[in-house]
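In this supplementary section we document a worked example of the pipeline. Step one takes a protein sequence of length 462 as its only input; no multiple sequence alignment statistics are reported here. Step two produces a three-dimensional model, which step three serialises into structure tokens for compact storage. The input and output of this example are shown verbatim.
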Amino acid sequence: MKIIDKAIKTIKKHSMIKKGDTLLIGLSGGPDSVCLTAILDKLRHNFNISLHALYVNHGMRPEESKKEESFCKELCEKRGITFHSRSVDVRSFAKEKRLNIQETARELRYEMLEEVAEDINASRIAVGHNADDQAETIFMRLIRGSGRRGLSGILPVRGMIIRPLIEIERSMIEKFLRDEMGQSFVLDSSNLNEDYLRNWLRINVMNEVKKHNPSIVRDLSRTADILREEDNHLEVIVTKTLMRLISRKSDNSIELFLTPLETLEKSLLRRVLRRAIDATTGLRGISFVHVEDIIYLIRNGRSGDRINMPKGLRAVRNYATLQLTLEVPGSFKEHTLHVPGEIIIQEQGVIIEAEIIDEEIETDGRSTALFNLQALSVPLKIKPRQNGDFFYPLGMGKKKKLQDFFVDEKVPRDMRDTVPIVWSGNDIIWIAGYRADERCKPWVIGIYLKKLHCPLPITHHL
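The serialised model returned by step three reads:
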């Protein structure tokens, strides 16, 4: 099958283009993007499409970049394609964001493509990934320990991005340019740098594998197609499951009911959590280990337990829900707690109840605590921490600064002002959610305090 016919088949198979579309081509001057430009130019009348092309100068190879940009501009002028160019400072951005060079270059390149696409009102952005890129990507992700989704490879369509060459091998692309088009292209010298994993795989691994299995690229592409179809089916199940689990959601926070969540099969639970995380901050920087930590929190944690992950994401196990959030609850105003009675600390999503009981019952000191009524001054006060606060942690029998207690308990610094501190007169009697005070051990008649999850529709939760 001719390369143009293969490209048309891929375009139709994945519904990449519709008549009247304006397309922006990511043009680097390399064989893939030049081939993509030539094919789309030939198909321009078939689909009645308008073509633009963008060259992005990454600021990494000054001399080469000038030649590449000049080549791309001339190519577009010959074919009547509107040409655009943008410059980005990859090294500075990578240093600022603490990302590797390749990841930064990719991020900025797509950012520029999306920016220009919006300026020209383009409906699609076409990039030149081919079947060899697909095979290399699968190899890379296999080495890094990806699951089914990662091994599905590069998506033919992702949002506005389309990849018409994704089922065409690199050798066919180069043969088409050389023999059928007589079209030159430029080579990026950084593609020979084996410090980059993709280059090392292409040069040292893929070439060797092809000697033993010449059809490896086609075979891996077929595998990616199968895994992608299966993954799409599983994602439908995840979507239906997640719809039953969501308690509340905002731009930076999502809360899931624990009762169904705890009983999910682990394979489904992983996918549900990754989708939920993706709805808040995106999965970049959130690894398999972090997802496993969240699963452990769900199945073994207690109310109030939390874990901190990259990019400010926190997982908090509440009384009846799991919260995944980027939001940092602020402090709260002072409250008065009458006995018996209850108060709602709306800023933290916490209810504290006080009851008078005439028998000693078992408490955990975290979500519940029991105190000697005769030793207390009521009503009680609920306050955020202050500098110099101290108490006598139950079981220790000696004075301890609240700051030191929080450090020992590994309470995140940004969460310490959110912890309700219960006072009797001038003494702290309970660090709600953590520890009771030694000095008010219960007698027969006592005050029973409970810290509960707040059912109100609010965002922050302790």
